Amino acid sequence: MKVVPVPQLADNYAYLVIDPARAVAGVVDVAEAGPVLEAARRHDVTLTAILSTHHHFDHVAGNESLLDELPKGSVEVYGYSGDAERIPGITRPLDDGEEFELAGLRGRAMFIPAHTRGHLAYYFEADKSVFTGDTMFAGGCGRLFEGDAAQMKASLEKLAALPDDTLVYCGHEYTQGNLRFAATLEPNNAELGRRREEVDALIASGKPSVPTTIAIEKQTNPFLRSASPELVASVQAQVAGLGADPVEVFAATRTLKDSF
Ligand SMILES: [Zn+2]
């Protein structure tokens, strides 16, 4: 597998997921068809699938116009079965755990609701890669639009249970801001300091901060660190009466981030 990030709108990423042996690609989350078609041409691949993580416009607004530009019936559109009515052009509704083939690549849908009630990740086990949309970001997580803190915590833990060396491709370039917030909660987390330097250097040289890895996220993402004593103490210092219950700490962390 070869993965090509394709910048979309202000700070979104679509991703070409390429099977180099067949010169075929799927694309994760299309906001704008033009840059996706241009990237496919540049890499000389035929697009045969759209993998939509969730229904928000900045992830699916380009589905129909991309389909219009490609041979009719040549492109499968994947999305969560329970949210099919909100995924434009869907042809292959997927349930949690359902497997699919993208040229020679084998993928699996993971149901990870909370940002929206019908959110999927696309996991490619043999290629050690997962596309997490707006659920797990590098250094953060999506806002709770259609689910609650307990649900988001469970969805993130489902992703965090993947092997440590799994590459994580998320839906937005929010990493610098996310890590700035993380550092306010864990100023003594040495791994977080090291990661901030790495990301600042990438962004300064015009490169994406993605992919991250599950190992890096477990060490630096405040939404996977509700058991860190330093993080718990920092959140408690800002939220009167907060105990140490991990879901309540998680919810309070999410609320603090909403106004950071
Ligand atoms: Zn979203």
Commentary on this structure:
This protein has 260 residues and is of the alpha/beta class. The protein has one domain: Metallo-beta-lactamase, Chain A, CATH 3.60.15.10. It contains nine helices and 14 strands. The protein has helices at 33-42, 57-60, 63-69, 149-160, 175-185, 190-204, 214-220, 229-238, 246-258; strands at 2-8, 12-19, 24-28, 46-51, 76-80, 92-94, 99-102, 105-111, 120-124, 129-133, 136-137, 140-141, 167-170, 212-213. The strands form three sheets. It has a six-stranded mixed β-sheet with strand order 1-2-3-4-5-6, covered by helices on one side. Strands 7-8-9-10-13-14 form a six-stranded mixed β-sheet. A hairpin with a 4-residue loop joins strand 2 (12-19) and strand 3. The longest helix has 15 residues, at 190-204. It is globular and about 60 Å long. The protein binds zinc ion (ZN).
Considering the chains and any ligands shown, give keywords for the structure:
alpha/beta, Metallo-beta-lactamase, Chain A, six-stranded mixed beta sheet, 9 helices, binds zinc ion
| CATH classification, class level | Alpha Beta
Task: Give the averaged pLDDT, no decimals.
Answer: 97
- Percent of residues in beta strands: 25-35%
Distance between the termini: 37 Å
Q: For this structure, what is the CATH homologous superfamily?
A: Ribonuclease Z/Hydroxyacylglutathione hydrolase-like
User: How many domain units?
Assistant: 1
Radius of gyration: 18 Å
Could you tell me which ligands this complex binds, including any ions or cofactors?
zinc ion
Q: Order the strands across the largest sheet as they lie in space.
A: 1-2-3-4-5-6
Beta-strand segment tally: 14
